[in-house]
Specification:
It contains 8 helices and 5 strands. The chain has a single domain, classed as P-loop containing nucleotide triphosphate hydrolases (Rossmann fold, 3-Layer(aba) Sandwich), CATH 3.40.50.300. It is globular. It is 43% helix and 13% strand. The model has no long low-confidence stretch (mean pLDDT 89). Strands 2-3-1-4-5 form a 5-stranded parallel sheet, with helices on both faces. By secondary structure, the chain is of the alpha/beta class.
């Protein structure tokens, strides 16, 4: 007998998402920031969270480094592990979504296939994709951790932008050029897109 036969979900017996959204007076969504390391995803995510908090919204940030030091610390950077990393993150995001929480995700998520998987797990109507865009040379100039230097020396393998590809999103809900816009304007543009989606009417 398959182990799956011993799993009995109780989703129908717990408070549903609409109950929690009503309690929190907000609509839950997943805002998914994608882009190269150093593009400004984490900085933008933090600023967006700060502004939403000022407006009374309950949020949760999921960030690459934090997730990989916890729930995904057993994963490396092979293609298989990258896919599993995003799959787990997407499932966790869906749990926050069902709790009525606005989940702000900051992950390189380098391929269309990976981002499509995330969107399918979360659901298209609840998935707001923001492409945080900056040229590779700008990302490298911001590299306080020295990751690009290590990758160019071959000390880090499968590093996105150096020896692993980044596929530019074809139809993001929003693109932010962080090399052209100050953080305040970048944050404002993200808020313009997401505030209408999270207001509870």
């Amino acid at each position: 007998m398959s182990d799956q036969n011993n799993i009995h979900p109780v989703f129908s017996q717990i408070l549903n998402r609409s109950d929690k959204e009503r309690f929190l007076n907000q609509k839950s969504k997943v805002v998914w920031f994608t882009g190269l390391s150093g593009a400004g995803k984490t900085t933008l995510a933090r600023n967006v969270e700060r502004e939403l908090s000022k407006r009374g919204y309950l949020t949760q940030i999921l960030d690459g480094d934090n997730i990989r030091s916890g729930i995904n610390k057993n994963l490396g950077f092979t293609e298989v592990d990258r896919n599993e990393n995003i799959r787990r993150i997407s499932e966790v995001s869906r749990l926050f979504l069902d709790c009525g929480v606005i989940c702000i995700n900051s992950f390189i998520s380098p391929t269309e296939e990976i981002r499509q998987m995330a969107m399918e797990i979360i659901g298209r109507k609840d998935f707001i994709e923001v492409f945080v865009n900056a040229p590779l040379e700008v990302c490298e100039s911001r590299d306080t951790k020295g990751l690009y230097i290590k990758a160019r020396k071959g000390e880090i393998k499968n590093f996105t932008g150096i020896d692993a590809p980044f596929e530019v999103p074809q139809t993001p809900d929003l693109e932010i050029r962080t090399d052209e816009l100050p953080i305040e304007e970048s944050t404002a543009r993200v808020l313009e897109v997401i505030l209408p989606e999270i207001r509870y009417d």
